[in-house]
Amino acid sequence: MLAVRDQRDRASFARLFGFYAPRIKGMLMRSGVPAAAAEDIVQDVMLAVWHKAAQFDPARSQVSGWIYKIARNRQIDIARKAQRPLPEEIETQTRPEEDPGHLLAFEQEAGQLKEALSRLSPEQRDLIVRAYVGDLTHREIQTETGLPMGTIKSRIRLGLDRLRHELKDLRN
Fold it and tell me: Which parts of the sequence belong to the RNA polymerase sigma-70 region domain (predicted)?
């Protein structure tokens, strides 16, 4: 174990694996874990041993105790996960036939939004379209445009304020 911890020695790890893998599998199967699941847990445990080798301290525990503790904890994690109830499936309502009145109102609102966007400065409109239509983050906009972050945020904020003011009648 010390060679695995200190030099990441693969041959030493192979010997650890060969010695502990069947013992861990036996321990798991004696506790009621099916053979296939036990093999999966053994793989997880030995992978954890490889990745966490730097955490092994011979002054605190023996190699066997440390490895069996990892195996026991992994078994408990899997048992807990199996006992978790699955989330209930949310029923989605089928979409009712579109009401022509709603469609007309939606089209009119979309037209008003386009008109209000056209009254913004080109700089504000461009950034708002990138952020909300293009679904870009401020960082992505900055990468594309080369503008400073403060400029991007200010233009978007001022443009949105103006849109809110122009479209306030839609909310009522």
Answer: 20-84
* pTM for the structure as a whole: 0.48
CATH code: domain of residue 129: 1.10.10.10
What does DSSP assign to residue 133?
I
Residue 94 resides in a domain: no
Of 106, 109, 107, give the one whose Cα is nearest residue 170: 109
pLDDT under 70: residue ranges of the chain:
84-98, 170-172
Total Cβ atoms within 10 A of residue 92: 6
Structure tokens at 83: 């006992």
Q: CA-CA distance, 170 to 149, in Å (whole number)? A: 31
Find out whether 140 and 132 touch, Cβ atoms under 8 Å.
no
Q: Report residue 84 CA to chain centroid gap.
A: 20
Same domain, 6 and 72: yes
Residue partners of 33: CB distance under 8 A and separation at least 6: 41, 75
Place of tokens 């900055």: 142
